Predict the 3D structure of the following.
Amino acid sequence: MSFYGDADITNDNDYYDLSQFSNLLDLVPNVAELPRNVIVSFTGQDTDYKYSTVYNVGRDSFIGLDVTLYNNSGSQATAFLDTRDYWILDANVRTLTNIPFNELLIGTTGASANKIDGTIFGCSLKYIQDLARKRIKSGQTAGKIQLGGFP
């Protein structure tokens, strides 16, 4: 398996192709119906804090589906989910749900440093690949899983 090539999805142990999710989410039910079997929390973060659900250390790769952020920095903050920006008012919680993403980046914060807390909820890539395999085998969906191979 190459880093940029397609993974051999027929092999149960070959779920570490870390290319973006290609068509994987097209082959499973609605994102809202996927279980959130991975939860990652962080506290006291500031501008330029970055977390990748695929390229993280010490955890299997997963797809981020929901994120909750609490801003206590003194003014409006921004956060980016794969370059899409979202604002978070001061002293407020912002919850973004059913948005598949890989990377969370805290863009800007207020005058008080290290005042962003958050929780990321996601679903493991292995679970999603197994589910897609089962749906293809049973005829519930058509297609071939392609994890790599950028268009």
